[in-house]
Amino acid sequence: MSTAKKLKLGLIGGGPGSFIGAIHLNGALMDGMFELVCGAFSSNPAKSKQRGEELMLDPARVYGDYDEMYEKESRLPEGQRMDVVAIVTPNNVHFDPTVKALKYGFHVALDKPMTLNYPQAKELYHIVNDAAPRFLLTHTYSGYPMIKQAKQMIADGEIGKVRKVYVEYPQGWLYKLLETENNKQAEWRTDPARNGLAGCMGDIGTHAFHMSEYITGEKVSHLCADLYIKIEGRPIDDDGVVLLRFENGASGVLMASQTDTGCENNLKVRVYGEKGGLEWEQELNNSLTVRFPGEPAEIYRAGTGYLGSLAQENTRTPAGHPEGYVEAFGNLYRNFARCIYADRAGETPKWEWEDYPGIEDGIRGMAFIEHVLASTKSDTKWTPFIVEK
Q1: Please, are residues 216 and 277 in contact by the beta-carbon 8 Å criterion?
Q2: How far apart, in whole angstroms, are the C-alpha atoms of residue 82 and residue 193?
Q3: Looking at the predicted structure, is the pLDDT value of residue 323 above 80?
Q4: Measured between alpha carbons, how far is 244 from 36 in angstroms, rounded to an integer?
Q5: DSSP codes of every residue in 324-336
């Protein structure tokens, strides 16, 4: 792998002032496996040009839209053209650029949730599975080392059969009608046409749902949901709670809100099994609390030698040196790149490298949104979780 050339990256979205675009780019570039070569950064050509200048790109490879980018990049000689495209646009501009990228043969890294709606997700599911390029869905929190550690400990049976799962995602940034104050992030995330029909549950609830299945290795079988609009005048939910049943008989509670005034971004996960329990929170992300009956609580720390292989593969610094959100993105992109390099070399990637979210996670996330919306409207409430493909 040391002789492999850098993967050439293109970016769709991430124009001037973009939050998530900058995070994706920093994560992708941090290990030297990618280099940014082109982009269609905004639907406004002038803003796209501005961002290209900020990133010091060749002006000829800063494009007015993604159709132009795909066409012109595909005509460049192999070794010069884009290999991977990162799509960091609002949700209504996920499906079409992903489908077209795969048809051109480009690998795709896509921000979550996967699509604007469930019908698109079902169609994309088959397109991805029939395509040769690899597909990454950036559920960021699965990139944290101590989440990897928790996943491996549960898979190894260290806490026994999972009985209970609590996952909560409190934010407070939408505690008022910020979308009326020229806040671009609030504008599109509260607009059903650009975000989809689920607001808070589509934006951060899907992260919580993914975490509940990823860390436990169990699949949700039924759910019971209530969504709320806490801020008058907002067209889609900004708060909600979901009860979960898992296929192994475990129960769960999922809470997500963007109106918890004063809260920042502290995703929390607690999993309890027959033998013990595990607890993690994003604002203290380098620690994993492990509990067993009759024993003092243990604190596992990132960067230490006693962690499992999943955590070790996704740890960058010695113990006591904080790693965080950007590094979690970097772990997803690094594992993605390692798998592409292995494919090119005709080798089988290490299983730890292939531990990144993909199309299965994407369609389950969109099914979650669909079932949460249905359950909220239903008098029956408990809704079987069926993933149609």
Answers
A1: no
A2: 30
A3: yes
A4: 41
A5: -HHHHHHHHHHHH
CA 219 from chain center: how many Å? 18
CA dihedral 71, 72, 73, 79 (to 10 degrees): 130
Q: Are 330 and 33 spatial neighbours (Cβ–Cβ below 8 Å)?
A: no
Instruction: Report whether pLDDT(17) > 90.
Output: no
pTM over 0.90: yes
- 8 A C-beta contact, residue 205 and residue 141: no
pLDDT in the model for residue 3: 58
Chain centroid offset of residue 382 CA: 27
Buried b (16+ CB within 10 A) or exposed e, 173-189: bbbeebbeeeeebbbbb
Task: State the DSSP H helix or E strand holding residue 212, giving kind and residue range, or none if neither.
Answer: helix 206-216
Task: Let me know if 320 is exposed, middle or buried by CB neighbors in 10 A (0-12, 13-18, 19+).
Answer: exposed
- Structure confidence by residue, pLDDT tens digits, 223-250: 999 999 999 999 999 999 999 999 999 9
pLDDT tens digits, residue range 351-384?
Answer: 999 999 999 999 999 999 999 999 999 999 999 9
